[in-house]
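By way of example, we now present a protein record of this kind:
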Amino acid sequence: DLEGLVYLNEIESLLYGKGIEIAMVNESGELFIGSVFDGDQTVDRKNFKKVIIEDKRLPTNAGPEGVTYDPHTDTLWVAFEGTGDKTTRIMKYPRPKNFTDGLNITKTGVMPFDIQKITKTKDIAGLTFNPVTGRLIVLGEVNRRVYDLGLNGEFYGKHILEDHQFEGICFNTDTNELIL
């Protein structure tokens, strides 16, 4: 089950032309990094490499719920919802480089702060990086909150959502708007 994707950068290939590099996460604890080229009608799995970010396959509703990218530090941030013995957490991973063809890699992340202690939420629906402030915007699903957090867990504020239980979040850098 694909849970989120994020744009990394523009690319150009002699074979395929212009395209973009993206990262995607699924609920099983896997991160995929790959390319989509202009004119592609579908996302071709052969253009993606798997990065295993968990030491075992995760049960349903325990895996990643979103991914975002900080281009300034070349860091991927992944939000995990909590269930069972797994706590809600946000992990950061250095962006993998130099994939060998056909080789999947395992990356160990760092949990720079305790999201549950800061926000009192156990259910994260997504996150995005705000390049204007250099902070993370985290979407709480069940409690319908949006949290503004520093990269070390500093709490800058929250916004209560009145109506819906949103499932995703992104930041439009052209208009400086948050999109749910």
